[in-house]
Amino acid sequence: MLHRCTVGDVMTEEVITLRPDTPFHEIASLLDANDIAAAPVIDDEGAPIGVVSASDVLRHETGMPDPQGRDGSYERAWGKARARTAGALMSSPVFTARADWTIPRAARELRRRHVKQLPVVGDHGLLTGIVSRSDLLNAFIRSDVEIRGEVERDVLGRILGLEEGTVAVEVRDGAVTLRGHVPEPRLVPVVVGLCQGVDGVVAVDAHLAAARAD
Question: At CA 138, angle to CA 201 and CA 11, rounded to 5?
């Protein structure tokens, strides 16, 4: 099988975290100093219990609740606007990801939850990393050289067992062009499908024919 990039491949493992009693001024300083959009709040065991984002900090500074109502009840919204600690300011419950999730699954979760990052937890619910939208996008931004190498090495060689040079591979801006011969006609859609499964591939143009029998 092809190796599909996972959350564990792209997540940040060294995570800036907050505690429930972290004061507001320290939250703002940590986010700014580390140039991050959000930080998870963890309990004594290291499990995430909430997230504080730069948007939370800005709403606090203006003294106004979230105008789109994502803070929950009216009382909760105004409480966050006047919060003095991470525990009072954070969004909770926290939505998390797992390291073995595929990139599309994590992307769907980000979209469904309307968040820009997800803390990543292990089997015991403890924080192991954090993944953001930009992390997921980077997984698909691969050079043409990398894509060509994976197609030749893994798809044509390791999986299909084709001899080197049987199929010529050209990659330009993520679009793969295949030219050559395969042993049987039924392998043509197989080759195309496998190439489409390579991370970073945006299109596959196959000019393949079945090799003639001697």
Answer: 125
Give the predicted TM-score (pTM) of the model.
0.70
For 144-210, the fitting CATH number among 1.25.10.10, 3.30.300.130, 3.10.580.10, 3.90.70.10 is: 3.30.300.130
CA atoms within 13 A of residue 194's CA, in its CB half-sphere: 21
pLDDT tens-place string over residues 64-103 = 555 555 555 455 555 566 778 999 999 888 999 999 998 8
The contacts found for 193-197 with CB under 8 angstroms, 24 or more apart, are: 194/2, 194/155, 194/159, 194/160, 195/151, 195/155, 197/2, 197/4
In order of 14, 80, 198, 200, the CA distances from 143 in angstroms are 26, 44, 12, 8
Segments of the chain assigned to CATH 3.10.580.10: 7-138
Annotation: CATH topology of 7-138: CBS-domain (3.10.580)
Q: Is the separation of the CB atoms in 86 and 18 below 8 Å?
A: yes
The position carrying tokens 């392998």 is 187
Residue 50's DSSP bridge partners are 41
How far is residue 81 CA from its own chain's centroid? Answer: 30
Taking the CA of residue 13 as centre, how many other CA atoms within 13 Å lie in the half-sphere pointing to its CB?
Answer: 5
Q: State residue 1's pLDDT score.
A: 59
Q: What is the per-residue pLDDT across 125-173, written as a single tens digit (0 to 9) for each? A: 999 999 999 998 887 788 999 999 999 999 999 999 999 989 999 999 9
